[in-house]
TrEMBL record:
Residues 59-419 form the Amidohydrolase-related domain. Transmembrane segments: none annotated. Its EC number is 3.5.4.3. One of its GO terms (molecular function) is zinc ion binding. The gene is guaD. InterPro entries: Amidohydro-rel (IPR006680), Metal-dep_hydrolase_composite (IPR011059), Metal_Hydrolase (IPR032466), Metallo-dep_hydrolases (IPR051607). GO terms for cellular component: cytosol. Keywords: Hydrolase, Metal-binding, Zinc. The lineage of its organism: Bacteria, Bacillati, Bacillota, Tissierellia, Tissierellales. This is Guanine deaminase. The keyword Metal-binding applies. It comes from Gottschalkia purinilytica.
């Protein structure tokens, strides 16, 4: 028998496409070298002598994927949410991020962030940190130790922000390259990503430099796009030579020339949407944040209909929780309000919301977020016994009930790339 094969039994739920759950009661997932080999109802004789990890009546689903969050903002969860984006940044975000020049402070916060992601079953994340290279390195090292997977990027910002978080342009680019050289190729699960966080707080010089690094080292990019009407107008004033927000990023090689996540995307123009399609931009939908800061409602159905890849982001601390279950519900609710406003935008279904939190965001990592053949076995095990109402439910009904009424206490085990991940002990 191969030591590289594992067999898991339970009630299996995943989505191959957004429109429909794939479910299998009392099914088996065969995993070889950390990747899904087969999902089957009947185990072949070939596997009869392997140890079977039997989860009885529990549910096995792909691990959740959060493709937009700000690591330094964990202490601000639930604070300042009566403000809009730009005043909120000045009053809350920048003062908090300034603290991460202090290694001892970062050592208090970053381990808790990773433990909270583990707690909520978030097995993969796309993360922005602060301007500070040393504490960004701390977060990367902690993630590598934890066994969870992430893209992690030191932010770049050299204008139009509180002075405590502004960088010298050349120094920012040099520090970013040092971080890249230290961590590129170091881990299969934790990798650097370039982070020119927002056009109005990045000069053309720094965007050009970061775009060159992305190309030189073949690295992905993350940033914010068209989140707020005031921000869109601000970009127009700063860059009258460009037709829109996305075109500024595009000018500097930061808009799909490398794999790119753009967060929010609420007020995108037709030109931006065309570029997003052509350049295969990933959209991070952050409904909690969009509600909390009164930014607006993203036209999610439009992106899905156009075949643009969309995943979900908690966007802490503009979003107030790392729970992907809560974020799924918020995305569904936002789509319903959008439909009430404009009947051209059909609401999304529960299966579509689930897809966004698993395979939709997982695509940014490759074959992640599903139990199809060849996908990494990222999984969480759900014990929903306390959610029963004593009526027999389908697996679709049970997962819907978990998404709407369950919490982290229903998640009993987590796996990343075939490895069981215990609670991080820092």
């Amino acid at each position: 028998m191969s030591q590289n094969i594992k067999v898991y039994k339970g009630n299996i739920v995943f989505t191959k496409t957004p429109k429909q759950f794939t479910t299998l009661e009392n099914g088996y997932i065969i995993v070889e070298n950390g990747k899904v080999k087969e999902v089957t109802r009947n185990l072949s004789k070939h596997y009869k002598n392997y140890e079977i990890f039997d989860y009885d009546d529990k549910i096995i689903i792909p691990g959740f994927v959060d493709i937009h969050l700000h690591a330094p903002q964990l202490p601000n969860n639930g604070l300042g949410l009566d403000k809009e984006l730009l005043p909120w940044l000045e009053a809350y975000t920048y003062p908090e991020e300034a603290r991460y020049g202090n290694m001892e402070y970062a050592k208090k916060i970053y381990p808790k962030l990773i433990k909270d992601l583990w707690k909520y079953g978030v097995t993969r994340s796309v993360i922005m940190t602060s301007i500070h290279k040393e504490t960004t390195e701390l977060l990367i090292d902690l993630f590598i130790k934890s066994g969870l997977s992430a893209y992690i990027g030191k932010v770049n910002m050299d204008r139009n922000a509180n002075k405590e978080v502004l960088e010298d342009t050349k120094t920012s680019i040099k520090e970013t390259e040092k971080l890249i050289k230290k961590y590129i190729g170091k881990s299969e699960l934790v990798k650097p990503i370039l982070t020119p966080t927002l056009v109005p707080i990045c000069t053309p010089e720094i965007m050009k430099g970061i775009g060159q690094l992305a190309k030189k080292y073949d690295l992905p990019v993350q940033a914010h796009l068209s989140e707020n009407r005031t921000a869109v107008e601000w970009v127009r004033q700063l860059h009258p030579e460009q037709p829109d927000f996305g075109s500024v990023y595009n000018e500097y090689g930061l808009f799909g020339q490398q794999p790119t996540v753009m967060a929010h995307c609420i007020y995108t123009t037709d030109n931006e949407i065309k570029m997003m399609q052509e350049n295969k931009i990933y959209v991070a939908h952050c409904p909690h944040s969009n509600f909390n800061l009164a930014s607006g409602i993203m036209p999610l159905r439009k992106y899905l209909n156009l075949g643009i890849d969309v995943g979900l982001g908690s966007d802490i601390s503009a979003g107030h929780t790392l729970s992907m279950m809560s974020t799924i519900v918020s995305a569904i609710q936002a789509s319903k309000i959008k439909w009430v406003e404009d009947s051209n935008y059909d609401p999304i279904s529960v299966s579509e919301g689930f897809y966004l939190a698993t395979k939709g965001g997982g695509k940014f990592f490759g074959k992640v977020g599903s139990f199809e053949e060849g996908y990494d076995f990222d999984a969480i095990i759900i014990d929903d016994d306390n959610l029963y109402d004593f009526n027999k439910r389908t697996l679709e009904g049970r997962i819907e009930k978990f998404i709407y009424t369950g919490d982290d206490r229903n998640i009993v085990e987590r796996f990343v790339a075939g490895k069981k991940i215990e609670e991080p002990n820092f």
